[in-house]
Each structure stands twice: as C-alpha cells, then as structure tokens.
Design goal:
Layout: H1 2-11, E1 15-17, H2 20-30, E2 37-39, H3 54-64, E3 71-76, H4 82-102, E4 107-112, E5 131-135, H5 140-146, E6 149-152, H6 162-169, E7 173-177, E8 193-196, H7 201-212, H8 221-227, H9 229-232, H10 234-243
Helix pairs in contact: 3-5, 4-7
C-alpha cells in the first residue's frame, strides 16, 4: 500500500491531506517534494457553535427509558473497523470500571455503529451496567446532539478521526486519546477537545468527569475558521489560482 501511495503521489502535481500530521510526514515518508504537500482541513457545514436543543435530548432519553438526570456518554462508529472495535473494548473493559468508581453523576454509555463481531454479543447485555449497545442507528446526528460527552479512545490507526471533528462542530466536548486526535490542529479546538495519553485509563476516566463540568461551553470560533466551508478548502483554491496564472 505504501508503495502504491508513493507511486501515485509522485505523479500528482499536488497532494492535499485532511490530516496536518500526515501532510508534515509525507515528504520524507514518500520521498516527494514538500512543496507538493498541503494541509486541507476536513470540511464541515456548521459555521458556528449550535444552540443546544433540549427536545432532542429529551426524545432520546424517553425512547430508551433513561432518567432525566442521567448523563449520556456516546461512542459512535462501525465496529467492522478495527480501531473502533478496539475503542469499544477499551470503553467496556477499561474506562467504565474506573469511571463508575469516581463519577459523581449517573451516566449511560451509548455505543452506536454496526458490524460488531458475533463473539462480542455480550456487549448487548450490559444495560444493567449502564452500557447500551445500540448498533446501527438511522439518525446518528440526534444521538450526537443529545450526548453530554463524546468518547474517542482510539489508540490505533492513522488519519483524522472525522467523527471527532463532526462532534465538536455540533458543540460537543470530546474526550480523546492522543492517537485518536492525530492530524488535527488541536490548538483551534480549545476546551472542547480533551486529550489523554493512550492507555492511561485512570486519567481517561478522570478526564470524563472534568469534561462534564465544562460540557456547556461553546465550540470556539477558531475551530470553525479552520474547518467551515470554503475556509477549509482554501488551500485547494489557492493552489488552483497559482497554476492558472
């Protein structure tokens, strides 16, 4: 795969990466000129931090029979993708056991996304523990909007985890592993992104508690300046103008 990528990149006039990290690594990794590599942030269509819609949250709470005071912690992504499956295992076996010991609030962990291998069917039977495996859901946007915190304990894989960007665009606070946040310009995300060193599960549980206290703060304008609409594709437009001169 690396050889194939390098071959294609060598013929390209320009290569645009939605991952800042990969744009920096590409010249050395694939032996291509640095001036051919550009960072073009993952684009979103949300231009400002949205107003929280209590009715959406209430609908999800009522649909699943949760208590109104329960905090909703969401992980979403297909478990047919190994990094997501590993993240679900981290949530069930590592994070939840630690979080339930220190959490000052009642919570429900919602896991959305299809493709869970048959050998993990027991995940569907953990409702009494406060873990709800919902599988594929038709309207994932509603679950993201209803969530108090989005979890992203992804410790393997590369590229930008687009679900992280999309969740923060919708005004959610994300608690992520360091690997799960690779490729983004974290300084533009403010307090909406909390990063924890990979596999430091005590710290991850503590970060969730801390994040809950700040979950209502808006997504900073610097995030939207990086990702919104034509601002995100500006590197592409600038390059096109340069070759048309």
């Amino acid at each position: 795969m690396k050889w194939t990528e390098g071959f294609v990149y060598s013929w390209a006039d320009a290569v645009f990466y939605i991952s800042w990290h990969e744009a920096q690594r590409a010249p050395k990794l694939f032996q291509i000129p640095a001036e051919k590599c550009f960072y073009a942030p993952y684009p979103i269509d949300q231009g400002e931090s949205p107003v929280f819609d209590q009715s959406i949250c209430q609908s999800i709470v009522e649909q699943h029979g949760f208590a109104s005071e329960d905090k909703l912690l969401l992980f979403f992504g297909p478990q047919s993708y190994l990094p997501n499956l590993e993240a679900v295992k981290h949530i069930v076996y590592q994070i939840h056991p630690r979080l339930k010991v220190i959490s000052p609030f009642n919570y429900r962990i919602l896991i959305c996304g299809g493709g869970l291998p048959d050998r993990y069917e027991r995940f569907a039977d953990l409702a009494d523990e406060g873990i709800h495996y919902l599988g594929f859901v038709e309207d994932i946007e509603s679950y993201v909007q209803a969530a108090d915190i989005v979890l992203n304990p992804v410790n393997i894989g590369g590229g930008v985890k687009t679900k992280l960007v999309e969740a923060i665009a919708m005004g959610k606070t994300v608690v992520s592993s360091k690997t799960g946040a690779l490729g983004i310009l974290a300084e533009n995300y403010g307090e909406k992104l909390i990063q924890v060193t990979d596999t430091k599960w005590e710290a991850y549980a503590t970060a969730i508690v801390a994040a809950m206290q700040k979950s209502d703060i808006p997504t900073p304008s610097s995030f939207y300046e990086d990702h919104f609409g034509t601002k995100a594709i500006q590197p592409v437009l600038t390059w096109l103008k340069s070759i048309m001169k």
